[in-house]
Amino acid sequence: NHTPRENGNAPAPAPAAAPVAHPVSERERLGGADALPINPDYSFENFVPGPNNRMAHAAARAVADKPGLAYNPLFIHGGVGLGKTHLLQAVCISVLETNPNARIHYVSCDGFMTQFMNAVQSGRMVEFRHAFRDVDMLVIDDIHFLAKRDRTQEEFFHTFNSLYQDKKQIILSSDAPPDEIPDLEERLVSRFSWGLVCKVEKPGYETRVEILKRKAHMFGMEITDQIAGEIAQHIDTNIRELEGAIRHLQLAAAVAKRPIDLALARESLGNILPQARDTAPSIEQIIHEVVTYYQIKRTEVLGKRKLRSVALPRQVGMYIAREHTGHSLEEIGAHFGGRDHTTVMHAVKKIASARATEPDVERALTVIVQRLKGQ
User: Fold this and answer.
1) Cα(83)–Cα(72) distance, rounded to whole angstroms?
2) Which residue from 94, 172, 354, 369 has the highest number of Cβ atoms inside 10 Å of its Cβ?
3) Under a CB-based contact definition with an 8 Å cutoff, are residues 75 and 55 in contact?
4) How far is Cα 336 from Cα 322, in angstroms, rounded to an integer?
């Protein structure tokens, strides 16, 4: 389908008669600036399945064994740091181990949108479509960012149809199920649900213990069940925080030049596991109560909309998290859609001021905090 550029009626020298290759080959493009790197540690062997993620894990395994045939599309959703990206990359690793020549395009939704806009502006849509449609498997992380992007949704709709009709595997991840992604076209919501939609949730205690031991081993450490249990008892939010705790413990042992034991674990983790967290609500609990009280979607609180109907609940949630947990501004911002600490600081100041002058804000804070204490 790719012919040499026409040169008018002028006779062309012999070398120009050869077909012109694509400016960027498929293999080179897969490693281009828009592609996400594959972490070799994110294999199925290093994934810890549990009741919270068993269905998603099994589905990802099935897709890796039979791309385009098992579940297409495979749509995995859940909160931050619960293993969605690990599963997506594990499928890529497994497929490439079986078929090193498989054409896989693994990209973030932001990468897809950026590539699309660049292609539109530069008039290179043929290359763009080749990169995203002439593949064996398309894997897109954080597809919920496609919301409210009309032209990009239109292009992705046609990309999806092209791949699906050719029985090419599509894998998507999101922080919410298809029907809860705000401002997503109904036809995309429908297509995202054609295959299998799986949710990953917070890991239970036993799973957290196993994750901690597995992470420690990957970092060249060995920890006892007692040490892993101590950490798992305090951190129940997500896998990223569990990994952060292990890295902190590793650093503390190196600095103190001491073997890793329960005493060192408690001592070194004291600043990231304050006693306040023993009884404090988790940020996920706070978000749940906020969206329940204000009757809005979780994705709206974590999204970028600035309407008061969404921004106020978001700020209330940040304020409660700051006042009633031991988390830092950076940690709170990460849970609320990846915002930086200055955004959280602004929210805290605004709600602290508003609660004295706006009865609805004070009432919301009272009700939500009471519900959290009652859990």
Assistant:
1) 20
2) 172
3) no
4) 12
Residue type, 252: A
pLDDT at residue 289, rounded to an integer: 92
Task: Give the CA distances from residue 90 to residues 9, 32, 148, 267, 308, in Å, rounded to whole numbers and listed in that order.
Answer: 53, 20, 30, 35, 40
DSSP string, 142-153: -GGGGTT-HHHH
> What is the model's pLDDT at position 120?
93
H or E segment to which residue 288 belongs: helix 283-294
Rounded Cα gap, residues 239 and 144, in angstroms: 21
* Joined tokens for residue 139: 């894997």
Over residues 96-136, the pLDDT tens digits come to: 999 999 999 999 998 999 999 999 999 999 999 999 999 99
Q: Is the pLDDT of residue 7 over 80?
A: no
Buried b (16+ CB within 10 A) or exposed e, 236-246: bbbbebbbbbb
DSSP code per residue over 205-245: HHHHHHHHHHHHHHTT----HHHHHHHHHH--S-HHHHHHH
Residue 265, both tokens: 């674990």
Give the C-alpha separation, 331 to 339, whole Å. 9
- The full DSSP string for 341-366 is HHHHHHHHHHHHHHHHH-HHHHHHHH
Contacts of 270-273 with C-beta under 8 Å, sequence gap 24+, read 272/244, 272/245, 272/248, 273/231, 273/234, 273/235, 273/245
For the record, the structure tokens of 63 come out as 């897709």
Please say whether the beta carbons of 115 and 61 come within 8 A. no
- The runs of H, that is alpha helices, within 31-149 are 54-65, 84-98, 109-122, 125-133
Break the chain down into helix, strand, coil percent, rounded to 5. 60, 5, 35
Return the higher-pLDDT residue of 277 and 66: 66
The answer to whether the beta carbons of residues 47 and 90 sit under 8 Å apart is yes
